[in-house]
Amino acid sequence: VLFSLSKHYKLVLYTNSDGGRKIKIDRIKKTGLMNYFDLILPTDDTGENKPSESNLRFILAKFKVKPEDCIVVGDFPRLDLLYPKKLGFTTIFTSESGMKRQNAAYIDYKIKKIGELPALVKKIESKDCGRKIK
Asked: Among 46, 75, 94, 120, fewest CB within 10 Å belongs to which?
C-alpha cells in the first residue's frame, strides 16, 4: 500500500503512539517502512499530542498544500480525524485495528483493511465514490 501510494503522493506518518521519540523512530525503522514517508512527525517533535490543530498546520505549511488537497487516514477517529475534518481535510477511518461502528460526522469514508486505501484514494481523486458518508 505504501509503495503504491508513495509513487504518487506525499506521505506523512503523524504518530502519538506510546514511548518517547527514539522508541517511536526505532519501532518504525524495524518495520522497514521509513523510506515510504516524506515526513515522520512524532508528537514529541512539536510538544503537542493529538488532536492538535497546530501540528496539522505545520504539515500543511511544510508541503505548501491546502487541507482540501489532503487525506488523513486514522484508526482512532476522535484523535485522528476530528481536527483534520474541522480544517477541511478528507478523512478515512480504517477499522482494521478493531475499532468498529464509527459513524461520526467527521468520517468521510470507511475502509475495513488498509489494502483498500489505494483504490479509494483514486476514487476520491476522480470524485466518483459512492461510499461517502454524510
From this structure: 46
